């Protein structure tokens, strides 16, 4: 089992709450089966209305985890198990105690806002090393036994569910569901990039020792010192390489401006940084 910190617990819980809210108040009341186990559960609920969608998701996840255990082994991790069954639990609470109602009569608004909320929640769950199980498991099985790439497998499974939704609920709701499947994948990727964005800096300054001390003592970070050679000055120089959060970058930039306005700073955005001081490389 992977380590499960309090921060992970809080962020994953918030993520699955957003997914549950988007499903219960936007997609489920409008029969938008936008892929995944949740989409399949919406379709099944249409034929067995006595079973709430949250309970159907729970049943499907239990079946899928059992199949995965037999075919892929048991390496799911505590986070994925928590997110998968926690989502069903939150949906059951919403369905039992809050009786979700349609918030808008406009199908486009329901599809778009629901996709935005669900995509944001899923991105938070993925960003903290978990997943909600479901069709991820089917994609891994297809990858193992039929050598289909996981991304393509996941998209294929979701599109089959979307097409089934189209046949069940009609062309309008079905096409919106297919659009949500495409939009969700893109949105999740972009949001994960946004969560993990950092600033990569290369600094050339005659006050490098002061800058290094500021990075270590004030920002509680480290940096790498590279040896370089000035093409114009023909002098040996030292280049500082450091990766910082946006807020830390602003503080360092202000400090360098004060002590060496003629310093050279190159700044790039990086979308994932793993290792000490950043995201755990074991996630």
TrEMBL record:
Protein location: Cell membrane
UniProt keyword Repeat present: no
Residues of the DUF2179 domain: 222-275
Assigned GO CC terms: plasma membrane
Name the UniProt record assigns to this protein: YitT family protein
Membrane spanning stretches: 9-28, 48-69, 81-101, 107-130, 154-179
Keywords: Cell membrane, Membrane, Transmembrane, Transmembrane helix
Membrane topology: Multi-pass membrane protein
Pfam families xrefs: DUF2179 (PF10035), YitT_membrane (PF02588)
């Amino acid at each position: 089992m992977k380590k499960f910190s309090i921060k992970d617990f809080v962020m994953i819980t918030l993520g699955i709450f957003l997914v549950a809210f988007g499903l219960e108040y936007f997609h489920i009341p409008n029969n938008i089966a936008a892929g995944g186990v949740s989409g399949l559960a919406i379709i099944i609920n249409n034929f067995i209305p006595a079973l709430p969608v949250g309970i159907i998701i729970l049943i499907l996840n239990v079946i899928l985890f059992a199949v995965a255990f037999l075919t892929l082994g048991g390496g799911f991790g505590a986070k994925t198990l928590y997110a998968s069954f926690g989502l069903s639990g939150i949906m059951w609470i919403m369905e039992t105690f809050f009786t979700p109602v349609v918030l808008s009569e406009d199908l486009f608004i329901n599809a778009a806002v629901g996709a935005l909320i669900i995509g944001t929640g899923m991105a938070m769950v993925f960003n903290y090393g978990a997943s909600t199980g479901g069709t991820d498991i089917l994609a891994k099985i297809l990858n193992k036994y039929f050598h289909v790439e996981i991304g393509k497998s996941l998209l294929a499974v979701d599109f089959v569910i979307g097409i089934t939704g189209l046949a069940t609920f009609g062309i309008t709701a079905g096409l919106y569901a297919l659009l949500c499947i495409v939009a969700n994948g893109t949105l999740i990727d972009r949001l994960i990039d946004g969560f993990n964005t950092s600033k990569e800096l290369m600094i050339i300054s005659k006050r490098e020792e002061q800058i290094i001390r500021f990075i270590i003592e004030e920002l509680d970070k480290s940096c790498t010192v590279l040896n370089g050679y000035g093409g114009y000055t023909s002098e040996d120089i030292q280049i500082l390489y450091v990766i910082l959060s946006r807020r830390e970058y602003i503080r360092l930039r202000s400090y360098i401006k004060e002590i060496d306005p003629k310093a050279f700073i190159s700044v790039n955005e990086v979308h994932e940084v793993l290792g000490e001081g950043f995201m755990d490389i074991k996630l």
